[in-house]
Amino acid sequence: MPRVKIAPSILSADMSKINTEMKEVEKYSDFIHVDIMDGIFVPPTTIDSNFVKAIKTKVPLDVHLMVHEPSDSYIKGFVDAGAYSITIHEEACRNPEKQLRFIKKNKIKSCISIKPKTPLGKIREYLDIVDMALIMTVEPGWAGQKFIDSAMAKVKELRKLKPKLDIEVDGGINPYTARIAYEAGANVFVAGTSIFGKKDRIYAIKEILDRLK
Known about the structure:
This protein is an alpha/beta fold. The chain contains 8 helices and 8 strands; from the N terminus they run E-H-E-H-E-H-E-H-E-E-H-E-H-E-H-H.
């Protein structure tokens, strides 16, 4: 299995002082997870590519598009803003392969995501294209939701199919649920509230890492 990676989610950070927040966690982070919501695929609307461009960090930006049918120009905005990887949702795209190949054409890591109720079979045909797969462990849209254990069956199946693939989990991740996901086969952990909801963010990250040893 690939090595463990931690991705603090800025959805739970203080956006008004985002660069200060990033400085606090970047030394202990492998990625910074950036949630983009369009108000269509999911009800909330969040930040755009201009905001992402203003984020100052040396940590790779893991951009998660919870966006209905993101166009080439829309995706390119995040490429130009400095994204290291870009995730699209299978449920949000008529032809996910088109967006995935456009992402890769721009020399950005590509990732596909599915919601908790979407079967793994929906993305099997894309697994040879992508650099990472994201299994949502909550319904996308809001921070602070409860971890959905049933999603672990997909993580286990995916790890058997792709032993070397980065498998990311996002939603309700804390030291306890991270361990459950790790044992199922996940190696990339997105955590928002359990990091930015704490006063000591470094201790919060180390708490998660300690459970993954």
